[in-house]
Design goal:
single chain; 228 residues; alpha+beta; four-stranded antiparallel sheet; 8 strands; 48% helix; flat
């Protein structure tokens, strides 16, 4: 590397190696350049090794997905969700295939035991966040079928999907009601601010009988209660 050039030290930090300082001794510059070139070579080797590992894992996942599909019934193969993980190998993963058919709840098939698990619709309530949503989950008590009873499993998945739609509609109604209530509250607050502070009845003179003022307050509160 020419000592009069400025090279990028690290692509992540974008720090530069500026060797144009004329006060720096040539011997020091050469040592720095030699170290930088060694560092750059190590970084290139790491990147190439990482790319090779990712390519190997990608090929492993392609084979894994192909194997899983071939074990599925023909009618479900095109609906299998393919898995991919750049960091981990599929060798030690369980032989599970996730099936997502439009109009049905998600299905997980354990291809080692031929057990089908149906996704259960669940309504999540988070009152503190004022946020509700619906999703599918696979609890321990979820409904299961053997692969031999594929029709029964698909019927159950259809029913679960219809229940999911009902829960979504409920959440939408609740959200609309909450939005309406919030709008009414904001409108009431705006009207209250526009009216200004409420009148306060206080004794302004020591000669005024405080008991009389309190009596008047009581009468006012009673009348207001009748109106409300």
């Amino acid at each position: 590397m020419d000592t009069n050039t400025q090279e990028t030290l690290d692509t992540d930090t974008n720090e530069t190696l500026d060797m144009n300082d004329k006060k720096m001794p040539r011997e020091i510059k050469l040592l720095i350049i030699e170290a930088f070139e060694k560092y750059s070579a190590e970084q290139r080797e790491k990147e190439q090794d990482k790319a090779r590992q990712q390519a190997v894992r990608q090929e492993e996942w392609i084979k894994y997905n192909k194997t899983m599909k071939e074990l599925l019934p023909l009618c479900l193969r095109e609906f299998m969700v393919e898995k991919e993980d750049e960091e981990n190998s599929p060798h030690n993963r369980p032989m599970n295939a996730r099936i997502e058919v439009p109009g049905l709840a998600p299905i997980i098939i354990n291809l080692a035991t031929n057990i089908i698990t149906i996704g259960t619709p669940r309504k999540n309530n988070r009152e503190c966040m004022r946020e509700n949503w619906v999703n599918y989950h696979f609890p321990d008590y979820a409904m299961t079928f053997h692969l031999n009873d594929l029709g029964g499993a698909l019927l159950s998945a259809r029913r679960a999907a219809l229940h999911f739609k009902v829960l979504v509609a409920e959440v939408e109604i609740e959200a609309a009601e909450f939005a309406k209530m919030q709008a009414e509250r904001e409108r009431d607050n705006a009207e209250r601010e526009a009216r200004g502070p409420e009148p306060v009845y206080e004794a302004t003179d020591e000669t005024v009988n405080n008991a009389l003022v309190e009596g008047i307050r009581t009468l006012i509160r009673e009348e207001l209660a009748k109106v409300v």
